[in-house]
């Protein structure tokens, strides 16, 4: 949740504060820095929305600057899951729930897959929510000292609305992890059977759903349905916790490898829930050397000072999210329950937007080199203008580039030699229903 200053009030003081305001007392004011940050964040959030329509004559995009009314409160949730991994809601239902809770910017960060992003973005248009395409990558951290123990580490990746710059490379990387998750589930089921808790992998796979790589929560749900435990919490507490009697690892890559790939594919790499790690300082130090951009610091119960200090010490941006799965119950944080200060969001966007801009440039350059329909579809896979097979809704190549650049980049970013060269090249490309026609350029 982005407030004017990220300040969490003491409930015991609310009554006195309200009385003071009624008597004409001064309300807490934002500093100049907070005001500037809030204006910048608000402009990005409401690009192209009805809230900004009356005062903007520019495009609906991730980067263009608009003039819009500064709102008192914005709600960000940078960590959520759907049924595409181990969540309980479809991407569209997740977005609907986020809307009901007042969320304005949502990042869908399913485990090791981005398959739910297009559906989430389609639903987000209906509810006026901005989606940041994301993924939570399962990795293993291996200490350099012999006495150290390996432990699972999750890295969040955040991309522009255009998606990763090397989508196929990222998808291959994630597919290998998902394959390992199937083997991992089989190993967990085998261990449970050895513990005299009969369970079948087919049962787990059915719960996970078609094409979804099963995780611990799916095994836990199968255990509940089989009557071995009373609830999911009990399944984890007794059997499935890290290092537990039925715990198993898959084929997770090294954490440093994941951070490197996120950077190479135009993403922002953030360490997820560091408070769950056995040795967070060593992990943060190593991953920072590799190129880690940030760590989660904020939860629904507030800012964790120890991890905020670590972020400051290592020069990392501070984020946070609900890690919502839709399981229900009092133990899970709800969507939009994290108070994310406006200054934290502003710092994140200052870091992320140049990275995302570079990724968009790289995708455009690949399209110029090979203006195929496949590259066209990759170009707009996660964007607002989806391309159906065999048809370009944006017309010829020149118009395609002009419109897409206006959707994703500022005027200043578009007005350079690089983009002028791209537009010049694509002025000689036309796209028809039968595919691409590239006229021969006259010399």
Automatic annotation (TrEMBL):
Coiled coil residues, start to end: none
GO terms for MF: 5'-3' DNA exonuclease activity; 5'-3' RNA exonuclease activity
Biased composition (Basic and acidic residues): 1-12
SUPFAM superfamilies noted in UniProt: PHP domain-like
A Pfam family of this chain: PHP
InterPro entries: PHP_dom, PHP_domain, Pol/His_phosphatase_N, Pol/histidinol_Pase-like
Superkingdom: Eukaryota
Domain Polymerase/histidinol phosphatase N-terminal: start-end pairs: 76-141
Positions of the UniProt region annotated as Disordered: 1-33
Record field: compositional bias (Basic residues): 14-29
Xref: Gene3D superfamilies: 1.10.150.650, Metal-dependent hydrolases
SMART domains: POLIIIAc
Alphabetized PANTHER family for the sequence: EXONUCLEASE, POLYMERASE_HISTIDINOL PHOSPHATASE N-TERMINAL DOMAIN-CONTAINING PROTEIN
Name assigned to this protein: Polymerase/histidinol phosphatase N-terminal domain-containing protein
Organism: Escallonia rubra
Taxon lineage: Eukaryota, Viridiplantae, Streptophyta, Embryophyta, Tracheophyta
């Amino acid at each position: 949740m982005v407030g004017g200053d990220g300040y969490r009030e003491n409930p015991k003081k609310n009554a006195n504060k309200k009385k003071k305001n009624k008597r004409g007392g001064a309300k807490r004011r934002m500093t100049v820095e907070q005001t500037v940050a809030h204006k910048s964040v608000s402009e990005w959030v409401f690009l192209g929305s009805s809230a900004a329509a009356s005062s903007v004559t520019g495009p609906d995009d991730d980067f263009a600057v608009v003039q819009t009314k500064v709102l008192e409160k914005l709600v960000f949730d940078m960590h959520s899951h759907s049924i595409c991994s181990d969540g309980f809601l479809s991407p569209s239902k997740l977005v609907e729930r986020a809307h009901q809770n007042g969320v304005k910017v949502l990042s869908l960060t399913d485990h090791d897959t981005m398959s739910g992003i297009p559906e989430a973005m389609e639903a987000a248009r209906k509810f006026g929510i901005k989606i940041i395409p994301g993924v939570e990558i399962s990795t293993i951290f291996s200490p350099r000292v012999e006495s150290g123990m390996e432990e699972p580490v999750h890295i969040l990746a955040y991309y522009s609305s255009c998606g990763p710059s090397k989508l196929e490379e990222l998808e291959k990387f994630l597919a290998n992890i998902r394959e390992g998750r199937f083997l991992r589930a089989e190993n967990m089921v085998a261990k449970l059977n050895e513990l005299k808790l009969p369970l079948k992998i087919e049962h787990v796979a059915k719960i996970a759903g078609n094409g979804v790589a099963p995780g611990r929560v799916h095994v836990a749900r199968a255990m509940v349905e089989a009557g071995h435990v009373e609830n999911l919490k009990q399944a984890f507490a007794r059997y499935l916790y890290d290092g537990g009697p039925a715990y198993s690892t898959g084929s997770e890559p090294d954490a440093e490898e994941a951070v490197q790939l996120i950077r190479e594919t135009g993403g922002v790499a953030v360490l997820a829930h560091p408070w769950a790690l056995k040795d967070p300082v060593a992990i943060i130090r190593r991953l920072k050397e590799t190129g880690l951009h940030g760590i989660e610091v904020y939860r629904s119960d507030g800012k964790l000072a120890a991890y905020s200090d670590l972020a400051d010490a290592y020069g990392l941006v501070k984020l946070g999210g609900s890690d919502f799965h839709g399981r229900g119950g009092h133990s899970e944080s709800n969507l939009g329950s994290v108070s994310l200060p406006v200054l934290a969001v502003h710092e994140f966007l200052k870091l992320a937007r140049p990275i995302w801009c570079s990724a968009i440039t790289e995708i455009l350059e690949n399209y110029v080199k090979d203006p195929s329909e496949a590259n066209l579809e990759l170009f707009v896979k996660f964007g607002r203008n989806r391309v159906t097979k065999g048809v370009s809704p944006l017309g010829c190549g020149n118009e395609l580039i002009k419109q897409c650049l206006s959707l994703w980049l500022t005027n200043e970013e578009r007005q350079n030699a690089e983009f002028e060269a791209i537009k010049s090249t694509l002025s000689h490309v036309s796209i028809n229903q039968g595919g691409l026609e590239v006229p021969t350029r006259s010399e």
